[in-house]
Amino acid sequence: MSIVFRDVREHELDSVLALNNAAGPTILPFDQARLRHFFETAEYFRVAERDGTLAGFMIGVGSDAAHDSSNYRWFRERYPHFFYIDRIVVASRRRGGGVGRAFYADAQSYAELRYPQLACEVFLDAAADPTLPDPALLFHGSFGFREVGQQLMPETGLRAAMLMKDLCSYPWVRDTYGEALPAEPWLIVPRTARTPQRATGTGA
């Protein structure tokens, strides 16, 4: 069956938490309070559903978000306007089946209408074999990301490669539509715009 992408639902948060914390060293764990913060404030918090089951999730925020990640702050200090992918997790049984690449395509289709750049990071110290090229860097490189720096995360001691991708459609969209995008069903409305009451969450 095809992969269906949609906004996360509140009753799915326990499953998302379990999926995140079972993902291994490439994904930082979080607790219920931080997950709730993302649910209440993240501009993009979507799940992938395949065969009626949760296949993964992705969380993203814009460059004006109240986000306390040191990697996010690294980008904020250097770039004025971008969309940041905080994390993507694919269920172990679904890895290698195209869910991750489809997620990045979904996130880009959202971001390129609103931001000139897409940002994320890869943990370099989490590679299974540090003597070999990191497959995560290969994956991101094949999707158009380039490394723009590295940082040693103060809260974890992990070294991260900081990646950016220019979104070539953004200048045309900005010059043609400004911030008034057409009211078309295929244009994903930001979660925080649809549910403004969720914009008051505090960080964990």
Word description of this protein:
It is a single chain. With 204 residues, this protein is of the alpha+beta class. The protein has a single domain (4-178), classed as Gcn5-related N-acetyltransferase (GNAT) (Aminopeptidase). It is 29% helix and 25% strand. A hairpin with a 6-residue loop joins strand 6 and strand 7. The N and C termini lie far apart (37 Å).
Look at the structure and give the mean pLDDT: 86
- Summed up, the helix count is 7
Order of helices and strands: EHHEEHEHEHEEHH
Q: Helix amount, in percent?
A: 25-40%
User: In terms of structural class, how would the helical and strand content be classed?
Assistant: alpha+beta
Helix and strand arrangement:
Elements (H helix, E strand, L loop, with lengths): L3 E4 L5 H9 L10 H10 L2 E7 L2 E10 L7 H7 L6 E8 L8 H13 L5 E7 L11 H8 L3 E7 L6 E8 L3 H8 L13 H4 L10
Parallel strand pairs: 4-5
Antiparallel strand pairs: 1-2, 2-3, 3-4, 5-7, 6-7
How would you briefly describe this protein structure?
By secondary structure, the chain is of the alpha+beta class. It has helices spanning 13-21, 32-41, 70-76, 99-111, 135-142, 170-177, 191-194, and strands at residues 4-7, 44-50, 53-62, 83-90, 117-123, 146-152, 159-166. The chain has one domain (4-178): Gcn5-related N-acetyltransferase (GNAT) (Aminopeptidase, 3-Layer(aba) Sandwich), CATH 3.40.630.30.
